[in-house]
């Protein structure tokens, strides 16, 4: 696992050095609007802890952080109208490492919705 780089943009957002359009903030999670949205609903959810990728978060975060993160995602999908209990669904994406085309080395989950998202990966 690569070492966490605390100069990444999400670490700077968490420290208040870079503004964001916050949708939800909890004890362990920050959810904010993507600055280059790819769908009518496009938010990023990040844990406040220093985790590089999903596998790092899943293996090393506390139970409280893991529960808070997933409950925050459930709350946001409902509040943004894309959860299945009132909306038409969403896509949750987390990229990891070079093969996953991860651009920011801080675990984050994209939530996209508000329109049909199409295939995630083209058949090869």
TrEMBL record:
<feature type="domain" description="HIT">
    <location>
        <begin position="9"/>
        <end position="122"/>
    </location>
</feature>
<feature type="active site" description="Tele-AMP-histidine intermediate">
    <location>
        <position position="108"/>
    </location>
</feature>
<protein>
    <submittedName>
        <fullName>Histidine triad (HIT) protein</fullName>
    </submittedName>
</protein>
<dbReference type="InterPro" id="IPR001310">
    <property type="entry name" value="Histidine_triad_HIT"/>
</dbReference>
<feature type="short sequence motif" description="Histidine triad motif">
    <location>
        <begin position="106"/>
        <end position="110"/>
    </location>
</feature>
<dbReference type="GO" id="GO:0003824">
    <property type="term" value="F:catalytic activity"/>
</dbReference>
<dbReference type="InterPro" id="IPR019808">
    <property type="entry name" value="Histidine_triad_CS"/>
</dbReference>
<dbReference type="Pfam" id="PF01230">
    <property type="entry name" value="HIT"/>
</dbReference>
<dbReference type="InterPro" id="IPR036265">
    <property type="entry name" value="HIT-like_sf"/>
</dbReference>
<dbReference type="InterPro" id="IPR011146">
    <property type="entry name" value="HIT-like"/>
</dbReference>
């Amino acid at each position: 696992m690569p070492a966490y780089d605390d100069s990444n943009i999400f670490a700077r957002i968490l420290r208040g050095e870079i503004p964001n359009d916050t949708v939800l903030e909890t004890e362990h999670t920050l959810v904010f609007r993507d600055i280059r949205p790819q769908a009518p609903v496009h938010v990023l959810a990040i844990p406040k802890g220093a985790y590089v990728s999903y596998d790092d978060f899943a293996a090393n975060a506390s139970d409280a952080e893991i529960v808070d993160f997933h409950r925050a995602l459930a709350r946001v999908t409902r509040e943004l109208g894309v959860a299945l209990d009132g909306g038409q669904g969403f896509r949750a994406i987390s990229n990891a490492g070079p093969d996953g085309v991860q651009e920011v080395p801080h675990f984050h989950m994209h939530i996209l919705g508000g329109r049909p998202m199409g295939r995630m990966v083209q058949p090869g």
